[in-house]
Amino acid sequence: MSPRQEASRDRVQRFEADVLSHLGDLYRTALRLTGNAAEAEDLTQDTCLRAFERLDQLRSPAAARVWVFTILRSIFLRRVERQTRSFEVEIIDSPLLEASEVLQDTYEALRPIQETPLSEVREALGRLPLAFREPLVLAHVGGFSYKEISEILAIPLGTVMSRLFRARRLLRSELREPSRRTGISP
Amino acid sequence: MTCNEVPKVIDAYLDGELSVAATLQAHEHFAACENCRRILESEAALHGLLVQASRAEPLPTGLRSNVLGRLLPTVGRARSRPARRLIVRFGIVSGFVGLAVASWLVTERLLPPPMTPLAAELASKHLLYGEGHGGALELVTSEPGKMGSWFQGRLGFPVSLPSVAKRPERLVGGRISSVADAPAAYALYDRSGQSISLFVTRRVPFARRGWIERHVDGAELYFASLRGVALIWWEEKPADRLYAAASAGDEDALVEFALLCVKEGQSRHADAALPARLVARSLAAPGLRRRRPYRSGAS
After folding, report:
1. Which residue has the higher pLDDT, B81 or B131?
2. Of A148, B223, B258, B275, whose Cβ has the fewest other Cβ atoms within 10 Å?
């Protein structure tokens, strides 16, 4: 085997170990972000291709997971920006829920929420504004820590926490009152 | 911690993002405050639903091979002339990879969703009591009999702990805890530096969705895993007991420990049900003799 062939083989092997090992979570994250299986598959493939092209930028296998999810998010955002003229990210940190509303949201909804069909949860998740959906998907599909989510989304740690908090409150409202829509969805 | 502070920390508590000290404070508050504990359970249910809804979906068939297929031209461009032999080999590798993905998919489809409120509770308590290496224990003893009497005195029902004299596990001690709001005995074991938590309570109703039922060596065990903590529960019906074991270490060792508990429970009830003269013979009964030690699929 020539040195060139050997280098190609090593590169593919490294790609399989560092990137393709996360394929399942990449696809599921893409699916929850796009809400569409075909788009999710396309987004996942584009992410992998971009990761392969830039594999030399990855310094450590330990950083691969955050790195490849950052790529996925970047490609996804570019697509969203292309599709929507006004990408209203700025509204996301406005107080969609007041403190009193949060505190009212107690355990009385436990039973109904536990029994919610998963399809309804997915639909409710899909209706959340993107800025709330993103950290929620990264936390629950990717299992990322707050710090890692903050790196992937390029936002401060405190913002990750407040968005996750608000996202879960909004989701709970959606599950309790499916007719009530939370707002924008790119 | 006060009830007003709970909404601010509850997500971080369930996400495992609180410091150990804050986790302990929160845990103490949840143990003492029924209202906040119900809020915690409700939040844990929401977290569980999100995990299930997000992770229970299968991958499209051929995704991995499609990805690898799209890489081939890139490999060629990057390395100037695509070698035919490399492509053939790549195809073979892709075939194997495709097969691996297919088997992985089958496994994924068969697996139920991973998290339940009970799993969250057991995993949190294992991390709180078990990974502190004895700091949260109320009685430190290596004698199962002494520990059992202590539990009975405080819980009001007998708690039988497995005999580990000839085993790699060592009893460290225990404390009073709760499982699904019911009072429970909590015993901590150490196996080569790995903590194993054992919870024993009266059988209580709880949602079983999300647990994987497996029959291991004749025992009906329910498995889950959360944040690196392997969890198993089983019932000892004649004694009306629910057992749960948790460990962040080797799952095979945890299964072995669970089977030890199950086996000892069966022996106790077999002994109790038979006249004294038949006890010795019951221990040699074919059903018990046929039991084999647990072997994992990988071993």
Report:
1. B131
2. B275
Q: Whose structure tokens read 């430190």?
A: B140
pTM over 0.95? The answer is: no
Q: What is the pLDDT of residues B241-299, one digit of tens each?
A: 999 999 988 889 999 999 999 998 888 877 666 554 444 444 444 444 344 444 443 33
Token pair of B127 as six digits: 């991390």
Q: Do A118 and B51 touch (CB under 8 A)?
A: no
Write the ipTM.
0.80
- Rounded to a whole number of angstroms, the distance from the CA of B13 to the nearest CA of chain A is 12
Least confident residue range of B63-67, B74-78, B90-94, B114-118: B74-78
Residue from A122, A123, A147 to probe the interface with B (highest B Cβ count within 10 Å): A122
Nearest CA-CA distance, residue B99 and chain A, Å: 15
Residues in A closer than 8 angstroms to B59, CB to CB, are: 23-24, 27
| Contacts for A22 with CB less than 8 Å, ≥ 6 apart | A64, A65, A68, A69
Mean pLDDT of chain A: 79
Give the pLDDT confidence of B133-145 residue by residue, as tens digits: 555 677 888 999 8
Contact A145 B17 (CB under 8 A): yes
Chain A hits for B47, CB-CB cut-off 8 Å, are 140, 168
Q: CB pairs below 8 Å between A and B: how many? A: 126
What is the radius of gyration, based on Cα positions, of chain B?
A: 24
Q: Provide the shortest C-alpha distance from residue B215 to chain A (in Å).
A: 27
Dihedral in degrees, nearest 10, Cα atoms B102, B106, B112, B114: -30
B254 vs B34: CA distance, rounded Å:
31
Query: Are the C-beta atoms of B120 and B128 separated by less than 8 Å?
Result: no
Spell out the domains of chain A, with CATH numbers in brackets: 3-83 (1.10.1740.10), 91-176 (1.10.10.10)
What does residue B284 show for φ and ψ, rounded to 5 degrees? -100, 15
Integer angstrom CA distances of residue A166 from A126, B43, B47: 15, 13, 14
Of B209, B254, B207, B200, nearest to B228 by C-alpha is B254
Can you tell me the distance from the alpha carbon of B291 to that of B201, in angstroms, rounded to the nearest whole number?
26
Radius of gyration of chain A (CA): 19
What are the sequence ranges of the domains in chain B? 3-55, 63-110, 117-289
Report the alpha-carbon distance of residue B161 to residue B155 in Å, rounded: 14
pLDDT at A183 over 60: no
